[in-house]
């Protein structure tokens, strides 16, 4: 089960503080529901979470073209005008997404995200749902 949302606040803040050019951090379920966020607008976080569901599905489809791949998405990085978007698998059925300015240290973002996932990945899980309820 997902820990209470409030328990994630300090962890996400720690990630943002460690990478000053970070604008928004979202923890989401594989089906695109926001679990937690730091920075930015709650509605934007919901839109990011929904878009991430499609992105992880696309990454899994592309992964099937790589021999010996299990189809699992580990990390996606998108460079956009004005910044970067990062999404990393963060536990069973959960993902960590970060939006950052164009001046961000790309290696630092990836490292800090990975460190966070290693530290708390077991807690960043989202069980499958049926009719809006965990199964």
Automatic annotation (TrEMBL):
InterPro entries found in the cross-reference section: Mycobact_SerProt_Inhib_Rv3364c, Roadblock/LAMTOR2_dom
SUPFAM superfamilies cross-referenced by the UniProt entry: Roadblock/LC7 domain
TM spans (from-to): none
Pfam families linked to this entry: Robl_LC7 (PF03259)
Every Roadblock/LAMTOR2 domain range: 9-100
Taxonomic superkingdom: Bacteria
Name recorded for this polypeptide: Roadblock/LC7 domain-containing protein
Protein source organism: Streptomyces alboniger
